[in-house]
Amino acid sequence: MRGGPGQLAAGRYRLTDRPEPLCAHAVDERTGESVLLRGLELPGLLTTGLDPEDAAAAQADRLVRRVAAVGSTAPTGHPRLLRGVGAFVEDELLWTVEERPAGGTAAELLVGGPLSPYRAAELAADLAGALRALHGAGLTHGNLTAESVLVCEDGAAMLGGLLAGVAQEALAEELGGPGGRRRYEVRATLVGAVAERWPLDGGPAGDCWALGVLLHRLVTGRSPYPEGGVPELVTAVRDGRREHSAVCGPLGPLVERLLQPDPARRPTAEDVRRELAELLAGAPEPVDEERVARAVMLKPEAPLVPRRRESVGGGSKPPRIPPSLLGPLLVGAVFVLLALGMAAVVLFAG
């Protein structure tokens, strides 16, 4: 599928927009819902003893079946999970399909600058709920990034990208084997230097680590690990070389625990959801949120001193005495009191 708006893909998806070569917005003509298509190039797999075309067809069939299997296992109807519709192959491209309500990605939101810790906490709480549902179904997401998070028009966050992540991991295994250097090289090409995609471990703990990286990115606008290239990134993750989580303000302690190298020491998705709910329950009023967040980020361990209110009637405040004049004024007052005392003694003595 290499056409533009108006083209029909897989006999049912009518393209409405093509923002990138491997990304398309479409309408499912069977259901009428808006969907997002993400493509993955399928290089020919030349298996010994098989005709190249047969090998490529077999490879594509295996990938589609693996993606479909995960899609059928994922929870349906969860308010914070984007539903995976399916996958198909067309023109040597594997396309995954998921529902797409109105909104923009977290990556697009970050173009306007970092978020306040409390706004980031709201989004992360939604994502933690989605991860909890996936983990409860025995699934790992593995593709939690700013690009896979949809921020809806009502401000809520929804987690997508599950099927696209499965397709990438499956292709890396098809081309590079179950592990080793070859698989790493293929995966590096497919995934790129995106810190959230390179945890030291997989499973639910790996998803929670990725959530910690994403939280840091939402609050600071950058990854806690260097992203100049995959080798540099992977080495930094392995060595624990990253920016300190104190820059995340009130979210710092949680981010620090999420990025622990030992997966057993990381909070679960449910732990994260509960902790963020408690943080948000004590969040400042929206009008003060930016000022408080900035103060906490600059001095994460210092208490906040509330600004003194102006008098209700709008009258002027008494002038403050400069500290440099306090000493001389006190000495002068002592002399005045002594003189008054002596005068009193003379008066009463007659």
- By secondary-structure content and strand pairing, the structural class works out as alpha+beta
Largest sheet: 6 strands, antiparallel
Give the overall form. Answer: globular
Low-confidence stretches: 45-50, 287-319
**What is the H/E order?**
EEEEHEEEHHEEHHHHHHHH
The rounded Rg comes to 30 Å
Q: Total helix count?
A: 11
Overall residue-averaged pLDDT value? 85
Q: Strand order, main sheet: write it out.
A: 1-2-3-4-6-5
Q: Per DSSP, what share of the residues sits in E-state strands of 2 or more residues?
A: 5-15%
State the end-to-end CA separation.
117 Å
Question: What this model shows, in words?
Answer:
- The chain has 350 residues and is α+β, with helices and mostly antiparallel strands.
- The protein is 46% helix and 14% strand.
- It has 11 helices and 9 strands.
- The strands form 2 sheets. It has a 6-stranded antiparallel sheet with strand order 1-2-3-4-6-5, covered by helices on one side. The protein has a 3-stranded antiparallel sheet with strand order 7-8-9.
- A hairpin with a 2-residue loop joins strand 5 (84-90) and strand 6 (93-99).
- Helix 3 (117-136) packs antiparallel against helix 9 (269-281).
- It is globular.
- The protein starts with 7 loop residues before the first strand and ends with a helix.
Topology at a glance:
Layout: E1 8-9, E2 13-20, E3 23-28, E4 34-41, H1 52-73, E5 84-90, E6 93-99, E7 103-105, H2 106-110, H3 117-136, E8 149-152, E9 157-159, H4 162-176, H5 181-191, H6 203-220, H7 230-239, H8 252-258, H9 269-281, H10 286-298, H11 323-349
Antiparallel strand pairs: 1-2, 2-3, 3-4, 4-6, 5-6, 7-8, 8-9
